[in-house]
Amino acid sequence: MEGITDSALYKNTVRTMETAGRFIKLSPSCIERLRTPRRALIVSVPVRMDDDSIKVFPGYRVQHNQTLGPFKGGIRYHESVTLSEVAALASLMTYKNSLLGLPLGGAKGGVQVDPSTISIKENEALTRKFTSEISPFIGPDRDIPAPDVGTSSQTMAWMLDQYSTESGFSQTGVVTGKPVEIGGSAGRDAATGLGVVYTIEKALAARDKKIANTTIAIQGFGKVGLHAAIEAHALGAKIVAVSDVSNALYQPEGLNVPELVQYYNQNRKLTGYHGGKIISNDELLALDVDVLAPCALDGTINSHNVDAIKANIIVEGANGPVTANANEILTAKNIMIVPDILANGGGVVVSYFEWVQDISWLFWDEQNVRERLRTIMYRSFDKVHEFSTQNSVDMRTAAMAVALHRLEGAMRLRGQIW
Ligand code: NAD
Predict the structure, then answer these.
(1) What is the pLDDT of residue 316?
(2) Total-model pTM
């Protein structure tokens, strides 16, 4: 499919799927079907800007596979969004949902826009137009978007409102990650970061360590990185470095996370906070820490900087932060990499809880959400780790193998493959 297979992330994802597929002797027809998405939608999103000019932004929704249930996946607003990147992320959602045992398929969407350069009014107009354009393909039983890089619970609230207006009645189940006041789930904001921390606990335990007093560096201080820092700090870990797009902060004794979070919430950037030494994002990645959690963008650990990595465990909070080449080199050095489809699965698990709560109109308290999330994250980690040790393969191949095994069974039962 032209335009779909171009990006490095797409090629990496297919390569991981094929490697794991060969390992578990996946049916060739299954591999062939999973190589390309089921459907890819390209839309133009015209926006009347505040100065009365018009700008047209390219938008995408890619639906990869819906064998296990409705399509599910986030919406990204970023200037580098491409059809191929969205397609790769859609396929990762298919594998993630399968691995986590959820009754959901995989999709992803995005608009090629730098959200920091548009006003709130322009952002709302863009979101409403994008929603309208993709509305024939989404819905509570079809495809359920959620926030991702550059989008938020406010974005989901506008999507919900636009979709409901066009349907003629309130459809809270059409998106997840929305504010609690309009059908969101308790605990959704922290879910991905909390899930990252549950997998950090498990990865450390697999190496006979506990999270208290371990040193952790986190790249990215957005929806994932910030909550990973809060939750790991609450369990006694030392968060020695964090970063955002502007720069990184380093404090070998451990940053004062509550103070830092308060500063960040007031200023929306790390620059200007004086509780740590300023270092570059590259220096953060090279710190000698127990755990490195890249929680920003894909491809940040690659063949150029892989030799500098000193962490014993890498937990992929972001999607695709370690390239396939870097993965091979790090695995050969016995560095454990907890792959994205496992490590950042907490977000979609609680999105699934939110969808279930919306459908049943019965809402759970935060403690209940956190306990159910922990059960799924621990169980998924154990399955992957067991496969990895029993078959002497790295955690990425193991996670993909577990995901593909379930998916293949379902596809075969439905007569999609043979
Ligand atoms: P976000 O937009 O809330 O935050 C991204 C963070 O990364 C920001 O702090 C930003 O400053 C930082 N950043 C951007 N470019 C950077 C760079 N070049 N170097 C260092 N930092 C940089 O996004 P998010 O929702 O936290 O998502 C982060 C990653 O996690 C993405 O890969 C996303 O697909 C993945 N993810 C998110 C969720 C979720 O629930 N939000 C779930 C699963 C996976």
Answers:
(1) 98
(2) 0.94
